[in-house]
Amino acid sequence: MYYPFFKYTTNVGYRILSIKKNKEDSVSMENSYIDYNHKSIQMKNITKKFGDFVANDNINLTVHKGEVHALLGENGAGKSTLMNILYGLYTPTSGEIHINEELVNIENPSVAISKGIGMVHQHFMLIGTFTVAQNIILGSETTKFMGALDMNKAIKDVEEISKRYGLSIDPMAKVDDISVGMQQRVEILKALYRGAETLILDEPTAVLTPQEITELINIIENLTKQGKSVIIITHKLKEIKSVADYCTVIRRGKYIDTVKVSEVTENDLAEMMVGREVNFKVDKDEAKPTSTVLKIDNLIVKDSRKINVVDGLSLEVKAGEILGIAGIDGNGQSELVEALTGLRKAESGVIQINGKDIFNNTPKQIFKKGIKNIPEDRHKRGLVLDYTVAENVVLQNYKKPEFSKKGILNQEAIRKKAEEIIERFDVRPNDPTAKSRGLSGGNQQKIIIGREVTNIEAARQNSNDPQLLIATQPTRGLDVGAIEFVHKSLVEQRDAGNAVLLVSLELDEVMNVSDRIAVIYEGKIVGIVDAKNTNENELGMMMAGGDSHE
Predict the structure, then answer these.
(1) Where are the alpha helices (DSSP H) in 244-388?
(2) Strand 371-374 relative to strand 322-326: parallel, antiparallel, unpaired?
(3) Could you tell me the pLDDT band of residue 2, with boundaries at 50, 70 and 90?
(4) Cβ 90 vs Cβ 84: under 8 Å
(5) Which residue has better confidence, 485 or 32?
(6) Nearest of 229, 268, 262 to residue 30 by alpha carbon
(7) Would you call 433 helix, strand, or coil by DSSP?
(8) Closest Cα to residue 266, out of 532, 274, 445, 62?
(9) DSSP code of 15?
(10) Which residue of 229, 413, 431, 550 pairs with 40 in a disulfide if CB–CB is 3.0 to 4.6 A?
């Protein structure tokens, strides 16, 4: 049964929606802007091979005018490959593409743009020293007499498009000086400036704050109101439920199904994506903490502005427990981890691992003394992108006798090690010689996690001392199946008698995985609570600087 419903959204106006009871009796919203008589995009029987590897196997996709269509799949399932074909970055091995029901041959992005296709990549393609307006018009510059750049008209055009689509932004702001969410707006405006009718968003919420995600959903709603079609590449089920009309699921390069989002549950989507039932709850026994592995006392760390962002922080993490750190982004989490791993000098305080002082030691010294790190930024800190998977697997250990002799690398031993990690951690494609740059973000993360877990296991075997695993945003960019695997890996390290420090902006993750939760606010630990006995309200209050608990 349907009921008329009016929802007011920022910069959108009143949007007519209908409410329908799905099979879980939850309320779901349906987009009234879809024109089912107008097929904006049809991809028919698309196959893409890279050598012997089949990235896309006979996939079909239909998107209507005014529709938000989610493309769901595991890391490495072939989602980005399919959209890169639509955008002209790859040519299909076989299959057809129809735009507005006309057969087209998209040889390159210029053709795609001319046909009304725009794409916002996961990693933005902006020039930081240029202004917003300069980035938007780059390559499509407005000129006046004698070919001179008409910057005033360009700024006026940008302002007009911004206003039309509810994308308020300062055209004169330098890109380096604006937030990630605003940079994403610039990328969207770039596409719209070039006449995009269908917008592809690749993992659009991966680096956004909750507030920016809400703003993005409002923007998407406004785009559909204006007759635009939006394709979202994602594996975040909650966001699919909140914004998408239809969802096409791809698994291991094969088409699984296209479903109406209002008629399926998150569990349904997860099961279609990974091919099995997914356990969203972390299975773990009661923690049995023993000795103190990490001790921090009155630690002070300054940021680049010379301001105390870690301000007298004290904390202990014990062997046999997972201690989660919860906090709003920007309260000193990143700087704390950098000080613990030797990437940033601390001003004063105590940092000990198994009773040994590691204060301002080098990263190499800290690694040897017992701290292994899954870094926040996998591209900047986790991998050398132009190295192969095998080379990245032995980054910290290539000088060990098993991997080199007299300065000559044992390529066979390195390859074998990489193959073990690939198999154990389900890295795709399963090619140790593949460049890390060419893997999906999720599979890049699996390489890092696999490397650090095996590093811990080797160190524990050699020294018998419990190790500390620091996991910072360990599931960022991962699908639900991979998240389940990562959480299980963290619990396994805990159960093996090691200590785990989990730093995550995902409150659900912190509550689900941790045994104890330390809340950080303005560079201090304002309270530590038992994960079993707390709730989001209590943690949220503490994260905002409310009542502390000890």
Answers:
(1) 266-274, 333-340, 363-369
(2) unpaired
(3) very low
(4) yes
(5) 485
(6) 262
(7) coil
(8) 274
(9) E
(10) 229
Longest dimension (CA), the chain: 77
- Is the pTM of the predicted complex or chain greater than 0.85? no
With a cut of 50, say whether residue 100 has pLDDT above it. Answer: yes
**The pLDDT of residue 265 is above 60:** yes
What single string gives the DSSP state of each residue in 442-457?
HHHHHHHHHHHHHHHH
Q: Please check the confidence at residue 69 and state whether its pLDDT lies above 90.
A: yes
Please give the C-alpha separations between residue 265 and each of 25, 28, 210, 512, in angstroms, as whole numbers: 10, 10, 22, 21
- In Å, how far from its chain's centre is CA 504? 12
Residues with Cβ within 8 Å of 527's Cβ and at least 6 positions away in sequence, in order, are 518, 519, 542, 548, 549, 550
Q: What is the mean pLDDT of residues 350-376?
A: 96
Is the distance from CB of 261 to CB of 231 less than 8 angstroms? no
- Give the HSE-up count for residue 38: Cα atoms under 13 Å, Cβ half-sphere: 13
Mean pLDDT score across all residues of the chain: 87
Find out whether 69 and 248 touch, Cβ atoms under 8 Å. yes
Structure tokens at 139: 């390559």
No. of helices (H) and no. of strands (E), the chain: 16, 25
Closest to 183 measured CA to CA, from 132, 111, 236: 132
Question: What is the DSSP annotation of 295-317?
Answer: EEEEEEEE-TTS-EEEEEEEEEE
| Angle between helix 266-274 and 480-495 (nearest 10) | 80
3-state class of 541 per DSSP?
Answer: helix
The b/e string for 53-76 (b: 16+ C-beta within 10 A; e otherwise) is: ebbbbebebbbbbbbbbbbbbbbb
For residues 325 and 365, what is the distance between their CA atoms, to the nearest angstrom? 24
Residue 157 to residue 132: CA distance in whole angstroms: 12
Residue type, 268: D
Where are the extended beta strands (E) located within 66-104? 68-73, 94-99, 102-104
Judge whether residue 421 has pLDDT over 70.
yes
* Residue 514 phi, psi (nearest 5): -75, 155
CA 485 to chain centre: 16
> Tokens for 342?
């030797």
Beta strands across the sheet bearing 2-9: 2-9, 13-21, 27-31
Give the amino acid at 389: V
DSSP-derived letter for residue 173 is S
Could you tell me which CATH class the domain 292-543 is placed in? alpha beta
Least confident of 56-70, 157-171, 319-333, 403-417: 157-171
The answer to whether residue 3 scores a pLDDT higher than 80 is: no
Can you say whether residue 278 is alpha, beta or left, with left for phi > 0 and alpha for psi between -120 and 50 degrees?
Answer: beta
State the amino acid at position 311 in one-letter form: D
Please say whether the beta carbons of 229 and 41 come within 8 A.
yes
